[in-house]
Amino acid sequence: MAEDDGRAIESLQAEVALLKKECQKLHKMNIIYERALSACNDGFLIVGRDGNIIEINKAYCDYFGVKRSETIGKHIYSLISNSKMIKIMDENLVELDAIHTFPDGLTASGEKHVAVTRMPVIENGETIASVAIVKFSKYTFNLASQLHKLEEEIAYYRKHLNRNAITSFEDLPSRSPRYAEVRRLAERFAGNDLPILLLGETGVGKEVFANAIHHASHRAGQPFVCVNSASVPGELLESELFGYMDGAFTGSRRTGKKGKFEIADGGTLFLDEIGDMPLQMQTKLLRVLQNGEIEKLGAEKPVRVDVRIIAATNQDLSASVKEKKFRPDMYYRLNVLPITIPPLRERAEDIPELAAIFLAELKDNYGRQVQISDRAWKMLQTYSWPGNVRELRNAIGRGFMMTEDNEILPEHLPASVQESADILSGENDDATIHDTRMQAERDLILNCLKKYEGNFCRAAQALGIHRATLYSRVHGMGIAIEEFRATAHHRNRRPHD
C-alpha cells in the first residue's frame, strides 16, 4: 500500500514538474506576445463571446487615447460604439481590409477612417472570440509617402545611369596635350570642396567632366545630381532645386518633394547652363552657397545641406555680368576654380579614339559588327565638329543605324558632314582644310558683328544661331570681345560726347 502511495506521489510530482515547465513556457510566450503587440504599429483587438475586450495593444489604445489596463475586460461598445466585432461572431463573417469609420470625436487624433481585417475564432465548431487587425490611415499614408519618395529617387538615378558611367579621369581618353593639361588641372581641383566652373562650347562634355571630378573626390560614394538651368522653366526651378512641403502651392504633391540639393546631400550638385539661370534664382542660390542652408517652399525652418557645387556654361559670364544678366557676386562665388574644356576641333587627334569608343558601345548594345570605311574616316577627321563630342557621338550613331551592311560609308553620315567634305574636296591636306574653314567662319562672324555694331543678339539672329553659341564661337576663336565692343562704342559716340 505504501509502495503504491509512493508511486502515486512520484507520478504527481512529475506531473507538477511538467505543468510548471509548461507554465514557464507559456509565461515566456506571453512576454514575447505582449512585446510583439506593443511594438506593432497596427492596432490589434480580441473580443470574447460575451463582448468584453480580452486583448488590445498599445497602438490601438493610443489611437483612442485610453490606457490598456483600463480597457481590458470592458465591453467593446464602451470603447467603440459602432463596433462590428459581435456581428462577426454572430454571423461568422470574415472581412479583409474593410474600411471602418468611427463616430466623430471618438479618436484622439481626430482620424476617422481605418482599414480593418476581422475574423471569428472558432474552436470545435463553436465561435469563442473575434479578432481585428487595424491599419491606421495616417501610418499607412506615411509609409506610402516614404515609398513614393524612394521610388522617385530610384527613377531619377535610373534615368541618369548612362551619363554616370564615367567613374574616373582614365575614362576620358585623349592624345591632345591641351586636353591632358586640363584633365590634370581638374584632378588637382577634385581634392577640395571649392566650387568649380566648367567653361566650354555646347557638346564638349562638361557633364561627363563634372562626373569625373566627382568620382575623383572624397564624395565619390555619395550622389552626383545634375540640373540643367536652361531646361527647367524659371517658375519651377526653385521647387526643382529646393523642393517643397505638403500643400506649398496649388497642384503640389500631397507628400511634398525633395529638391536636388537634398538629393545631392553629401555629394555633388552639377548646375549646367548656369548662365541661363534667372536673376531671382541666382539670388536664392547665392544664399544657399553662402549659408549651406536651403528653404523648401512652404517650410518654416531651413534645412542644412552639405553639397559641392560644379557649375558649367557655354557663355561668357563676365560679359553677362556687364550686361547685368548675371549677378557679379554670384559670378565671383562660382568662378573660384575655372576650367576651360577645349572644343573637339582643337584636339582633332582625339577624333579616331572617341569614334572607336562610340562605335564599340553600339556594337555591344546591338550585337552587330560594323566598321567605318576609309572614306568615312577621312570625313570624320576633316569635319570641324561645331557640336563637339556630342555631335561626333550622334554622327557615329546615325551611321551605325543607317548602314544595312557591316560598314559605315560616307552616305551614312549626317548631311552636314557630307556637305563639308564636298565643299572642301578640292583641298590637298587636312591642315589647309581646317584653316580655310576656320578663317571663313571667323570672317563671317566678324563682318556680321561689325555690321550690327557689336550687338550680339542681332548678329546671332542674322547668323541663324543662338546668342550663347555666338559668344562661345567668338571666345573659342580668340576674338577680344571687349576690345571689339570698345571700338564699336567709340564709333557710335557723338562728337560732343
Notable characteristics:
Beta-Lactamase; alpha/beta; 21 helices; disordered C terminus; five-stranded antiparallel β-sheet; five-stranded parallel β-sheet; 5 domains; Rossmann fold; 16 strands; elongated; 497 residues
Walk me through this protein's architecture.
The protein is of the alpha/beta class and 497 residues long. The protein has 5 domains: 1-39; 42-139, PAS domain (Beta-Lactamase, 2-Layer Sandwich), CATH 3.30.450; 160-340, P-loop containing nucleotide triphosphate hydrolases (Rossmann fold, 3-Layer(aba) Sandwich), CATH 3.40.50; 346-425, Helicase, Ruva Protein, domain 3 (Orthogonal Bundle), CATH 1.10.8.60; 431-492, Arc Repressor Mutant, subunit A. Helices cover 50% and strands 15% of the residues. The protein has 21 helices and 16 strands. The protein has helices at residues 2-39, 58-64, 68-71, 76-79, 85-91, 137-159, 177-189, 206-216, 234-242, 260-263, 279-291, 317-322, 328-334, 351-366, 374-382, 388-402, 415-423, 430-451, 456-463, 467-476, 481-492, and strands spanning 43-48, 53-56, 95-101, 113-123, 126-136, 196-199, 224-228, 243-244, 257-258, 268-272, 293-294, 303-304, 308-313, 337-340, 371-372, 407-408. The strands form 5 sheets. The chain has a 5-stranded antiparallel beta sheet. The chain has a 5-stranded parallel beta sheet with strand order 7-10-13-6-14.
